[in-house]
C-alpha cells in the first residue's frame, strides 16, 4: 500500500494522551514525505520526515538547536531479499544501513525508511508487518535486536554549536565508558600528556581513553592551574566476555523471546507512552527528546532500548493501562505479570553489570521504584543491596562529577547525566531513611550543581500541542523532581547531623547541641515549603477537570516527603529529652525549649493526619515514589512515639484522637488503592496499638 493513501481516522482524547497522534501533511516547499525534495542531514540520519514550513531550519533541527545542513549524500539502500519474506508478499521491509559508515554506531541496526513511519491507529506499523502477524513472526523480528545494549535514539555524531561533530559518551554499542578516578591504575594526570586524535581519543595497550574538555580548563590563563582532568576509559565489550558471574546466552534468548511475544508493537509503544505520561514527570531519568522524535514515539525504540530498561518500563507502566483505550480492551483481562517483567529486567541487568551503560543504571532505578511483592511486609535486604549497586554504577559512569561545563558531549547527554545523578541521590537517601541503614553517598564524593529548569525537559516537547487529557493533571511538570532534589539535600543534612553512628552518639544525650543543629535545618525546611508554587502547596483539594472528574496527580508524594523530613528532624530532637539531667530539667530555658519541641512535634502529627484525610482517588491512583510506603509507616511510628511519651492526660487524649483519625484515614486510603501504599503503615499502627493496650473498635 502506498504510504500517501493512509486514511486519517478520528482520534479519541486517549490517542493524543498516548503521544501517538498522527502527523498531518505540512504545507511548505517540500511535500510531506516527498521523494522529490531531499531531507536535511539530521532527518536523513534519523529516518524521519523533514518538515520545513518556509525555509531551513526544519522543525527537528530547530527543536534541537542544530544547523540544518544538506551536505551528506544519500545512503545506499540494500535491496529487499525476496526469499526472506517466505512468500508473505510484504510490501515493506526493514531497511539496512551500511554499518561501516563513520557516523553510525555499529549496533544501530533498526532503521526505517520514510514510507514506514509508525501509525499506531490505522493498522500499519514501522516494522513492515501486519499487526495481526503471528507471535512467531514478531519473535523473528525481535531477534534483529543486537544482544549488546543499545541505548538512545541518536547514536550518531552530534552537531554542536560552531559545526563541531561529537559522539555522545553513551552511544557506542561495543564500548562502554568508565570514569577514571584519581587513585586507580590509570592515572588521569598521566593520561593528559598523551596525544589525542580529533575525537579526543587515544589508544594505549589496546585500551582507548577519551578526554573530556571543559570551559574551566579552556578558560584558564597561562600559568594558572585548571580543573583536574576528566578522562573516561572506552572499554570494549569483548574484554568482558569471560566476566563472571554471568547468565547463559540461551537463558537471555528465552527471556528476550518472552518479552517480544508479550505485546504487539502497538501495545508496547502505548505502554511506553503511558510511562512518559504517568511516571516520567515525577522521575525524569530518561531523555524524552531522544525517544520522542517530532513529538511522536518511533517504533525503533523497541530495538534501541536494551531489554533491561524496556522490561522495567513496561512493568512500571502496567498499573496505568486502564487509562489507554486500546490496552484497556486488549491486555486488561489477562495482563502480564509486572513481577515477571521486573524479574526479566534484573536478569539482563546482571549480565550488563560487566559492561554498564546509562541504560543499566536507568533499569536499576526503575527496579527500585517497583511496588512491593507483599503489601504487608517491609522490603527484603535485597533492595538495600540494590541501592548500593546502583550508587556504585553511578560512580563507575562518572555521574557524581559536575558536567555542565563539559564541551565534549551533547547538551541532552549533560542534562540527562545530572538528572540521573539526582535520581540516584534521591533514591539512596529516602531508601536509607526507610530502611534505617546508612546512606551509600558521602557529601564529599560528588560536586553536581543543583538542578535548574534548563536541566529538565519541558512537560510537552510539542510547543503547539494543546491536547491535555482530562484525567492527567496539567501541573505535573518538571518542578516536582527539582523540588524533590532540593528537599532530599536537606534530608541528607538532617541524617548527617543526627543519624550517622557518631552523630547519634553526640546528639542523643545533648539536648542543647541538638537544638543548635536544628535551627538552620528547620529554617531551610520552612524556606523550601514557602517556595512551593501554588499547584504544589501542601494543602491541596482534589483536582477536578471541567466536568468535575478527578485528575491524576503524583505531587502528593512530594508533600508527604516534606512532612516526613520534618518528622525526622523532630524525632532527633525528642531523643535527648529522656536523658535530661536533674539540673537541666530545672533550667527554665531548657524547659521552654522542651515544650516548644513537643508542640512542634504535635503540629507535625496533625499535619500528616490532615494530609491523608484530604487525599482523593486522583492522588491515590497516581504515581508514588516507592519510598512513600515507608514514609507512611514512619508517620505511624512517630504518632505512637508521641503517645507513649505523653506528659499529661490531656496530651494523651489529644494524641489518641489524632491516632484514631490517622488509623481511619489509612484504612480508607489502603482500601481504595491497589498499590498497598498505606498497608504497611496501617499494620504497624495496629500492632503497636494492640501491644500498648489502646486498640479501639473500628468506627
Describe the structure.
The strands form three sheets. A four-stranded antiparallel β-sheet has the order 3-6-5-4, with no helix packed on it. A two-stranded antiparallel sheet has the order 1-2. Helix 20 (556-574) runs parallel beside helix 24 and helix 22 crosses helix 24 (628-644). The protein is built from 26 helices and eight strands. It is mostly helical. It has four domains: 40-66, no CATH class; 169-218 and 225-240, no CATH class; 249-455, no CATH class; 492-541 and 548-692.
Helix amount: 40-55%
Radius of gyration: 28 Å
Tell how many strands the DSSP assignment holds. Answer: 8
Anisotropy-based shape: globular
Weakly predicted, low-confidence segments: 1-36, 76-163, 220-224, 461-473, 695-699
The main sheet comes to: 4 strands, antiparallel
Task: Summarize it.
One of its GO terms (biological process) is nitrogen catabolite activation of transcription from RNA polymerase II promoter. By secondary structure, the chain is mainly alpha-helical. The protein contains 26 helices and eight strands.
Secondary-structure topology with pairs:
Blueprint: H1 13-17, H2 41-46, H3 59-64, H4 135-142, E1 158-159, E2 165-166, E3 175-179, H5 188-191, E4 201-204, E5 207-212, H6 215-218, E6 230-236, H7 249-262, H8 265-278, H9 288-291, E7 292-293, E8 296-297, H10 301-304, H11 307-317, H12 327-330, H13 338-352, H14 358-368, H15 381-396, H16 411-435, H17 479-498, H18 501-507, H19 511-530, H20 556-574, H21 582-586, H22 588-613, H23 617-620, H24 628-644, H25 649-672, H26 679-692
Antiparallel strand pairs: 1-2, 3-6, 4-5, 5-6, 7-8
Helix pairs in contact: 4-7, 7-13, 8-11, 11-13, 11-14, 13-14, 14-15, 14-16, 15-16, 16-17, 17-19, 17-20, 19-20, 20-22, 20-24, 22-24, 22-25, 24-25, 24-26, 25-26
Organism: Hyaloscypha variabilis (strain UAMH 11265 / GT02V1 / F)
GO biological process, one term: nitrogen catabolite activation of transcription from RNA polymerase II promoter
Domain Zn(2)-C6 fungal-type: 39-70
Amino acid at each position: 500500500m502506498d504510504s500517501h493513501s493512509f486514511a486519517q481516522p478520528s482520534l479519541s482524547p486517549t490517542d493524543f494522551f498516548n503521544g501517538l497522534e498522527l502527523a498531518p501533511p505540512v504545507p511548505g516547499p517540500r511535500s510531506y514525505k516527498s521523494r522529490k525534495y531531499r531531507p536535511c542531514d539530521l532527518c536523513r540520519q534519523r529516518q524521519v520526515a523533514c518538515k520545513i514550513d518556509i525555509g531551513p531550519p526544519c522543525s527537528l533541527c530547530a527543536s534541537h538547536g542544530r544547523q540544518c545542513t544538506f551536505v551528506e549524500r544519500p545512503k545506499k539502500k540494500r535491496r529487499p531479499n525476496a526469499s526472506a519474506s517466505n512468500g508473505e508478499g510484504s510490501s515493506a521491509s526493514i531497511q539496512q544501513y551500511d554499518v561501516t559508515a563513520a557516523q553510525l554506531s555499529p549496533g544501530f541496526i533498526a532503521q526505517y525508511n520514510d514510507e514506514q513511519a509508525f501509525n499506531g491507529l490505522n493498522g500499519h506499523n514501522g516494522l513492515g508487518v501486519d499487526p495481526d502477524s503471528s507471535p512467531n513472526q514478531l519473535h523473528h523480528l525481535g531477534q534483529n535486536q543486537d544482544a549488546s545494549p543499545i541505548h538512545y535514539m541518536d547514536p550518531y555524531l552530534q552537531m554542536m554549536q560552531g559545526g563541531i561533530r561529537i559522539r555522545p559518551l553513551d552511544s557506542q554499542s561495543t564500548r562502554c565508558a568508565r570514569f577514571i578516578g584519581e587513585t586507580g591504575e590509570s592515572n588521569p594526570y598521566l593520561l593528559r600528556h598523551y596525544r589525542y586524535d580529533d575525537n579526543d581519543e587515544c589508544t594505549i595497550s589496546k585500551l582507548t581513553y577519551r578526554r573530556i574538555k571543559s570551559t574551566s580548563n579552556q578558560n584558564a590563563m597561562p600559568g594558572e592551574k585548571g580543573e583536574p582532568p576528566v578522562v573516561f576509559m572506552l572499554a570494549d565489550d569483548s574484554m568482558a566476555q569471560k566476566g563472571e558471574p554471568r547468565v547463559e546466552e540461551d537463558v537471555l534468548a528465552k527471556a528476550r523471546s518472552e518479552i517480544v511475544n508479550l505485546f504487539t508493537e502497538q501495545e508496547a509503544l502505548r505502554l511506553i507512552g503511558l510511562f512518559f505520561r504517568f511516571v516520567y514527570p515525577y522521575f525524569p531519568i530518561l531523555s524524552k527528546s531522544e525517544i520522542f522524535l517530532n513529538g511522536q514515539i518511533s517504533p525503533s525504540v523497541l530495538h534501541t532500548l536494551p531489554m533491561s530498561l524496556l522490561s522495567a518500563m513496561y512493568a512500571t507502566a502496567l498499573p496505568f493501562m486502564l487509562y489507554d483505550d486500546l490496552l484497556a480492551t486488549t491486555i486488561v483481562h489477562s495482563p502480564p505479570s509486572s513481577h515477571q517483567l521486573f524479574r526479566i529486567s534484573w536478569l539482563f541487568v546482571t549480565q550488563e553489570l560487566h559492561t554498564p551503560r546509562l541504560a543499566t543504571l536507568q533499569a536499576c532505578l526503575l527496579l527500585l521504584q517497583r511496588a512491593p511483592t507483599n503489601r504487608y511486609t517491609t522490603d527484603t535486604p535485597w533492595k538495600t543491596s540494590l541501592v548500593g549497586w546502583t550508587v556504585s554504577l553511578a560512580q563507575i559512569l562518572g555521574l557524581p562529577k559536575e558536567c555542565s561545563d563539559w564541551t565534549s558531549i551533547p547538551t541532552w547527554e549533560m542534562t540527562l547525566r545530572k538528572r540521573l545523578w539526582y535520581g540516584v541521590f534521591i533514591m539512596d537517601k529516602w531508601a536509607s531513611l526507610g530502611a534505617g541503614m546508612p546512606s551509600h553517598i558521602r557529601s564529599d564524593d560528588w560536586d553536581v550543581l543543583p538542578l535548574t529548569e534548563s536541566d529538565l525537559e519541558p512537560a510537552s516537547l510539542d510547543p503547539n500541542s494543546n491536547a491535555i487529557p482530562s484525567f492527567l493533571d496539567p501541573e505535573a511538570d518538571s518542578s516536582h523532581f527539582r523540588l524533590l532534589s532540593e528537599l532530599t539535600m536537606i534530608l541528607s543534612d538532617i541524617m548527617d547531623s543526627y543519624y550517622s553512628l557518631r552523630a547519634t552518639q553526640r546528639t542523643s544525650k545533648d539536648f542543647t547541641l541538638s537544638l543548635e543543629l536544628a535551627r538552620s535545618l528547620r529554617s531551610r525546611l520552612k524556606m523550601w515549603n514557602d517556595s512551593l508554587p501554588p499547584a504544589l502547596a501542601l494543602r491541596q483539594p482534589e483536582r477536578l477537570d471541567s466536568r468535575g472528574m478527578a485528575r491524576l496527580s503524583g505531587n502528593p508524594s512530594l508533600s508527604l516527603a516534606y512532612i516526613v523530613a520534618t518528622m525526622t528532624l523532630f524525632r532527633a530532637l525528642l531523643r535527648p529529652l529522656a536523658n535530661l539531667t536533674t539540673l537541666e530539667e530545672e533550667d527554665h530555658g531548657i524547659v521552654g525549649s522542651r515544650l516548644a519541641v513537643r508542640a512542634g512535634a504535635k503540629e507535625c502529627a496533625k499535619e500528616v493526619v490532615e494530609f491523608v484525610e484530604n487525599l482523593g482517588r486522583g492522588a491515590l491512583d497516581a504515581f508514588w515514589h516507592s519510598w512513600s510506603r515507608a514514609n507512611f509507616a514512619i508517620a505511624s511510628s512517630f504518632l505512637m512515639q508521641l503517645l507513649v511519651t505523653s506528659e499529661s492526660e490531656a496530651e494523651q487524649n489529644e494524641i489518641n484522637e489524632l491516632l484514631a483519625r490517622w488509623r481511619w484515614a489509612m484504612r480508607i486510603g489502603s482500601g481504595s488503592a491497589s498499590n498497598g501504599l498505606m498497608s504497611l503503615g496501617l499494620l504497624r499502627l495496629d500492632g503497636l496499638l494492640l501491644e500498648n493496650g489502646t486498640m479501639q473498635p473500628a468506627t
